[in-house]
Write a structure and sequence with these properties.
Layout: E1 2-8, E2 16-22, E3 25-33, H1 38-48, E4 54-58, E5 64-66, E6 69-71, H2 74-83, E7 90-91, H3 94-100, H4 102-112, E8 121-124, H5 131-139, E9 143-146, H6 148-153, H7 162-176, H8 181-184, H9 199-204, E10 207-209, H10 212-217, E11 227-230, H11 235-243, E12 248-251, E13 255-256, E14 259-260, H12 263-274, H13 283-292, E15 299-302
Parallel strand pairs: 1-3, 1-4, 4-7, 8-9, 8-10, 10-11, 11-12
Antiparallel strand pairs: 2-3, 5-6, 12-15, 13-14
Length: 304
């Protein structure tokens, strides 16, 4: 049995351990949250190095991407530098999102089933953390609200222009990268808090797309008829959405025992199976997984 361990900066209350049987074999998948404790995260990587087949890096990414730029948060850089010394491959999920086009597959589903057109209004709480969504929805000529200033910095400043989004990101991100990670993204118990805010922007949108923690962060009690496009959800997350009137939740990754894990876990499964680091994988090796794990279809939850 292959073992996958996802170590996250997120809340330990979202921890999960499952054993699953896939067409490619048996896998034990475990997620451990460190409640924003970076030294603890490094210690866990050290403790389990060589004892599992692949690591997932959750609650953060190796880099933030916007336009043609990639920026690494300074605090997260400490973790990344340490992972380079490990025997076990470490996966953050960005590689697989770009290679497989998970977001594009979900957007295609929305369009083909009549949920998306050029008049659709899309709220993306953080464009820099889900830039592939930005690219995908722009390709469909949708109206996009970039919520980066609101959801990351707490400023009531919506951005509707792509050029403005890129311009501001090019100025703010190189400065913000020096801030503590917890100031930019909810970590630990902060991930469990929902403080309604920016309600009119949630109501404006037809589709709310991006990181699940960001989407929940300020969501109002009423999300009637909204569509949520995200990836990492728990059963409780989906109940919260359903109770607020959401008509459909789409996740870009499959459900394992009630949990849709992040792309870092899917990426780790591939690396564990082949015994390679993500940069060592060949195109035919990762394309094989699209069919084996049904990754060419989004995961759909309909509540109506």
């Amino acid at each position: 049995m292959k073992k996958i361990l996802s170590i996250s900066l997120g809340s330990s209350k979202r921890d999960k351990k499952v054993c699953i049987s896939l067409p490619i074999g048996e896998f034990e998948i475990e997620r451990i949250g460190t409640d924003g404790d970076i030294p603890k995260m490094i210690e866990l990587f050290k403790k389990y190095d060589g004892k599992v087949d692949a690591f997932g890096l959750g609650g953060t990414d190796f880099y933030i991407k916007f336009g043609n730029k990639e920026v690494t948060l300074k605090e997260v850089g400490k973790v990344i530098d340490f992972t380079k010394t490990l025997e076990t491959p470490v996966c953050d999920g960005q590689w697989i999102r770009e290679k497989f086009g998970f977001e594009d597959i979900a957007i295609k589903y929305l369009k083909e089933n009549g949920y998306l057109n050029e008049n659709s209004k899309i709220l993306i709480p953080s464009g820099v953390s889900r830039y592939n969504l930005v690219v995908g929805f722009r390709r469909e000529n949708c109206k996009i609200l970039y919520g980066d200033l609101m959801f990351s910095l707490g400023l009531s400043v919506p951005i509707y222009s792509y050029k403005t989004f890129i311009f501001l990101a090019s100025i703010i991100v190189p400065i913000a990268k020096y801030l503590p990670h917890k100031m930019l993204y909810p970590v630990g118990e902060e991930q469990e808090k929902i403080i309604p805010k920016f309600e009119k922007y949630y109501k404006w949108a037809d589709i709310i797309a991006g990181d699940c923690i960001y989407i929940k962060k300020h969501m109002p009690d009423d999300l009637s008829n909204k569509i949520i496009l995200t990836n990492t959800t728990t059963e409780n997350d989906r109940i919260l959405f359903k109770d607020r009137g959401v008509k459909m939740v789409i996740t870009t990754t499959p459900e394992f025992d009630g949990r849709t894990f992040g792309t870092n876990v899917i990426e780790a499964i591939i690396c564990a199976y082949y015994g390679k680091r993500v940069t060592e994988l060949k195109e035919e090796e990762y394309l094989k997984f699209i069919k084996l794990l049904n990754l060419d279809k989004p995961n759909i939850y309909k509540f109506y």
